[in-house]
C-alpha cells in the first residue's frame, strides 16, 4: 500500500514538472513618443508599448524576465501579487529588495508561480515610472484543470490607468520641491486610451469585440497612480468570480470598485440577445471619500461591440493593429521558450536575443463548449452622457453619500436596457472628431451611439461598502492560527511645519507627509534593505517599528491636535519569526484628511477578517470578524475614517514592504517593512542573491 501511494505521488510530481514551462522575456525600458489628448509626449515604456506587454503563464510555470534600462531614470520592476516564495530578490521595490537598475544596466528577474492563478499585474516600482510602465500578468490554471465556474468564451484584460499632460516624473518632482500634494491627473484611461469624452481621443477609443450569446470575462486591473475607481458596463450584469488572483464566491453587481493595485475578474453576460452592431460603454470614474481633497473627476470609456464570432486561442489574439497607435494590450512574446518538459527549477537562462514589440488587440479568447451563464437583474443604463471634460476640484459633498446598505439598491431592473440601444439620448458628446476609426478597425461614429452605464457618485461610501461586503472566499477556509503577533498600525496623512523663511505648498504653509504608527518611512540609499538584512550590514535600518501607535488618540475624530500631525522620519522594520501568524488592525486616521488607503503587502496574501468605520474597538468589533469565508487579498482598502483587520502567516523569508498603493502617499512615507526570518532547512530559507543583482 505504501509503495502504491509513493508511486502515485511520484507520478503526480512528474506530471506537474512535465507540464510546467519556463518563459523567457526581454523587457526594454525606454522613452517612447506617445500621443494622448492632442499632443505627443515622451513617456517611459516597456518595449515601446503603453500599456506594456501582457505576460501569460500557467500555475507552476517559471518566469525569467531580463530588464534592460535604456531610460534616463533608475528603474525596477515589481510583479504585483506574486508571492515570490524564497525569491525576494525578484520582488522589485527600489531600495527594499534591490538597488535600482541604473540607466544602461540590466537585471534578470527569476521566479516561479506557485499555487496562484488569476489576474495579477506587473509595474515599475521606482519613482513614478509605473504611470506608464505596467502591464497585465495572467496566470491560467494548470493543464488538465479549469476554472471553478463555466469557462468564458472570451477573456479581455482591462487596464485602468491615469494620464498627465505633463511628464509624471516632473509632477512628482514639483511636489517634492514645494511640499504640496502632486497635481491631479488630466484623464483616466482604459488600456491606455482616455475614450470618447476627450478631445483627439475617440479615434483610438479601446473597442472590445464580443459575439452575441457568449459570456466574456473582464480581467480588470486598477493601474492608476492615485485613485480608486468605480467601473460599470452598460446593458450588462457583472458577476465577480475572482479578486487579486483568488477565486471568490460568485457575486452579482452592477458596478465594481478597485483601489490602485487591485484586480477583479468579472463575467459579463447580456440579459437579452443583442444583435450584431450593438455597442455599450465600459466606463470608469473616481471614488473619493475625503471632503475637500482635489481629484480627477473625469470619466474614461471603452466600447464593447457585438460582432461576428472569431476564431479562439488561449494564448493568441485575433488580429494585430498598427503599432503606431501604442494603445492596445498585447501579449509579451516568449523568447526562446523551452519545451514543455523543462523543469521549473532552472536558475540560469540562455542568452536572450533582442525582440521587437508586437501589439495586438485587447480581446483574448479561450475556446469552450460549456454553456454560457446568464445573470438576472441587469442595471438600468443611464441615458445621459456626462458633460465634464475637465477636472477641476470637486468637493465630495457635491453628491450625497449613501446610507449603509441592507439590500442591493444599485441593482435596478425597472427598464429593459435593450430598448434604449439606439436612443438619441445616449449620443456621444461632440469632441471635434468626425473620423472615429478606433485603431481596431471600427468606425464607431457611424454606428449606433453606445449606451453609458450608471456609476455611483464620486463619494458614495455606501456603494463602496456594498461592493466590499460582497467579496468572499468560495467556501469555508482554514484560517492560519493561533495568532502569535497582534499588531495595531495607524495609517494616514500628516503635515510638517515649513522651515523659516521658506514658502511651502501644503495647507497653511506646511509640507505634505504620511506615516504608519507615526513613522514616516524613509528608503535607504547605499544598500537595499534585503541586502542589509541578508549580509548583516549595520546602519541601514533599525528593527524597532512600533507594534502599536506611540500615542493613542481619537484616530478618526475632528480637530486632532497639531502636536500629532508631524511624524518621525525613520527606516524602521518589524521582525517576524518564520511561521508567525500575524493579525493586524489597520486603523485609518483623520489627520489632515481621512482618505481611503489601499494597503498592499508584498510577498504574502492575507485574509480580510473585517472592515468598519470609526475607531476599531476590540470589545465590539471582534464579533464582526468573518472567520468562515473571508476573502484572500494582497491589497485591501482601509475605509476613510475606518479600519480593516487582516491575518496572514509569515512563511516566506525576506524583507517585505507594506505600503499604501496611492503613490502620492507612498512617496511621502506611508509604508513600513517586515523582516521574515529564515526557518529550518532549504525550503524555509531565502535563495542566495543572483550574480547580476544591481549595486547602489
UniProtKB/TrEMBL annotation:
GO aspect biological process, one term: lignin catabolic process
Catalysed transformations (reactions): 4 hydroquinone + O2 = 4 benzosemiquinone + 2 H2O
Signal peptide: 1-20
Gene Ontology molecular function terms on file: copper ion binding; hydroquinone:oxygen oxidoreductase activity
Localization of this protein: Secreted, Extracellular space, Apoplast
Superkingdom of source: Eukaryota
First-listed, main subcellular location of the protein, grouped into a coarse class: secreted
Region (Disordered): 382-447
Stretches with biased composition (Polar residues): 411-425
Top-level enzyme category: oxidoreductase
Domain Plastocyanin-like: 30-142, 156-308, 544-678
Classification via Pfam families: Cu-oxidase, Cu-oxidase_2, Cu-oxidase_3
Cofactor entry: Cu cation
Annotated Gene Ontology cellular component terms: apoplast
EC id: 1.10.3.2
Family: Belongs to the multicopper oxidase family.
PANTHER family xrefs: LACCASE, MULTI-COPPER OXIDASE
UniProt protein name: laccase
Amino acid at each position: 500500500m505504501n509503495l502504491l501511494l509513493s508511486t502515485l505521488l511520484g507520478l503526480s510530481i512528474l506530471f506537474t514538472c512535465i507540464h510546467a514551462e519556463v518563459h523567457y522575456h526581454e523587457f526594454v525600458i525606454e522613452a517612447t513618443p506617445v500621443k494622448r489628448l492632442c499632443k505627443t509626449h515622451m513617456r517611459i515604456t516597456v518595449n515601446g508599448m503603453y500599456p506594456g506587454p501582457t505576460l501569460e503563464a500557467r500555475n507552476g510555470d517559471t518566469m525569467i524576465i531580463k530588464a534592460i534600462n535604456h531610460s534616463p531614470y533608475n528603474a525596477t520592476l515589481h510583479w504585483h501579487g506574486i508571492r515570490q516564495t524564497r525569491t525576494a530578490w525578484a520582488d522589485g521595490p527600489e531600495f527594499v529588495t534591490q538597488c535600482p537598475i541604473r540607466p544602461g544596466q540590466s537585471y534578470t528577474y527569476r521566479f516561479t508561480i506557485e499555487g496562484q492563478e488569476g489576474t495579477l499585474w506587473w509595474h515599475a516600482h521606482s519613482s513614478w515610472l509605473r504611470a506608464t510602465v505596467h502591464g497585465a500578468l495572467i496566470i491560467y490554471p494548470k493543464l488538465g484543470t479549469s476554472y471553478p465556474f463555466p469557462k468564458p468564451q472570451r477573456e479581455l484584460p482591462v487596464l485602468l490607468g491615469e494620464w498627465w499632460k505633463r511628464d509624471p516624473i516632473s509632477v512628482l518632482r514639483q511636489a517634492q520641491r514645494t511640499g504640496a500634494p502632486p497635481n491631479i491627473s488630466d484623464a483616466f484611461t482604459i488600456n491606455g486610451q482616455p475614450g470618447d469624452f476627450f478631445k483627439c481621443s475617440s479615434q483610438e477609443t479601446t473597442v472590445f469585440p464580443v459575439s452575441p450569446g457568449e459570456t466574456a470575462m473582464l480581467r480588470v486591473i486598477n493601474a492608476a497612480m492615485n485613485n480608486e475607481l468605480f467601473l460599470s458596463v452598460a446593458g450588462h450584469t457583472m458577476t465577480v468570480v475572482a479578486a487579486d488572483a483568488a477565486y471568490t464566491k460568485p457575486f452579482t453587481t452592477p458596478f465594481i470598485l478597485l483601489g490602485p493595485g487591485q484586480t477583479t475578474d468579472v463575467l459579463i453576460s447580456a440579459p437579452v440577445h443583442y444583435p450584431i452592431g450593438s455597442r455599450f460603454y465600459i466606463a470608469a470614474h473616481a471614488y473619493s471619500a475625503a471632503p475637500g481633497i482635489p481629484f480627477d473627476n473625469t470619466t474614461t470609456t471603452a466600447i464593447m461591440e457585438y460582432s461576428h464570432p472569431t476564431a479562439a486561442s488561449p494564448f493568441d489574439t485575433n488580429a494585430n493593429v498598427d503599432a503606431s497607435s501604442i494603445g492596445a494590450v498585447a501579449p509579451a512574446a516568449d523568447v526562446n521558450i523551452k519545451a514543455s518538459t523543462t523543469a521549473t527549477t532552472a536558475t540560469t537562462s540562455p542568452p536572450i536575443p533582442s525582440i521587437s514589440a508586437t501589439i495586438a488587440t485587447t480581446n483574448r479568447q479561450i475556446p469552450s463548449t460549456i454553456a454560457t451563464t446568464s445573470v438576472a437583474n441587469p442595471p438600468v443604463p443611464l441615458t445621459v452622457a456626462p458633460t465634464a471634460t475637465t477636472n477641476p476640484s470637486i468637493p465630495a459633498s457635491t453628491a450625497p453619500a449613501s446610507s449603509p446598505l441592507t439590500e442591493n439598491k444599485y441593482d435596478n431592473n425597472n427598464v429593459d436596457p435593450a430598448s434604449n440601444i439606439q436612443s438619441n439620448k445616449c449620443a456621444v458628446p461632440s469632441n471635434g472628431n468626425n473620423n472615429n476609426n478606433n485603431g481596431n478597425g471600427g468606425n464607431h461614429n457611424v454606428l449606433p451611439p453606445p449606451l453609458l452605464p450608471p456609476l455611483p457618485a464620486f463619494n458614495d461610501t455606501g456603494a463602496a461598502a456594498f461592493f466590499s461586503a460582497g467579496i468572499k472566499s468560495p467556501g469555508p477556509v482554514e484560517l492560519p492560527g493561533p495568532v502569535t503577533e497582534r499588531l495595531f498600525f495607524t495609517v494616514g496623512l500628516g503635515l510638517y511645519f515649513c522651515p523659516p523663511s521658506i514658502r511651502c505648498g501644503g495647507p497653511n504653509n506646511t509640507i505634505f507627509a504620511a506615516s504608519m504608527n507615526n513613522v514616516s518611512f524613509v528608503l535607504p540609499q547605499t544598500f537595499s534593505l534585503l541586502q542589509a538584512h541578508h549580509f548583516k550590514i549595520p546602519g541601514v535600518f533599525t528593527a524597532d517599528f512600533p507594534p502599536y501607535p506611540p500615542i493613542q488618540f481619537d484616530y478618526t475624530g475632528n480637530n486632532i491636535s497639531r502636536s500629532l500631525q508631524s511624524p518621525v522620519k525613520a527606516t524602521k522594520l518589524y521582525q517576524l519569526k518564520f511561521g508567525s501568524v500575524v493579525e493586524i488592525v489597520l486603523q485609518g486616521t483623520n489627520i489632515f484628511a481621512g482618505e481611503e488607503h489601499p494597503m498592499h503587502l508584498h510577498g504574502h496574501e492575507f485574509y480580510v477578517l473585517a472592515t468598519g468605520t470609526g475607531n476599531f474597538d476590540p470589545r465590539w468589533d471582534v464579533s464582526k470578524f468573518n472567520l468562515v469565508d473571508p476573502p484572500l487579498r494582497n491589497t485591501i482598502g482601509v475605509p476613510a475614517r475606518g479600519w480593516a483587520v487582516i491575518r496572514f502567516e509569515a512563511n516566506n523569508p525576506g524583507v517585505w514592504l507594506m505600503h499604501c498603493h496611492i503613490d502620492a502617499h507612498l512617496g511621502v512615507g506611508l509604508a513600513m517593512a517586515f523582516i521574515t526570518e529564515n526557518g529550518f532547512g532549504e525550503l524555509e530559507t531565502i535563495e542566495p542573491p543572483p550574480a547580476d543583482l544591481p549595486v547602489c
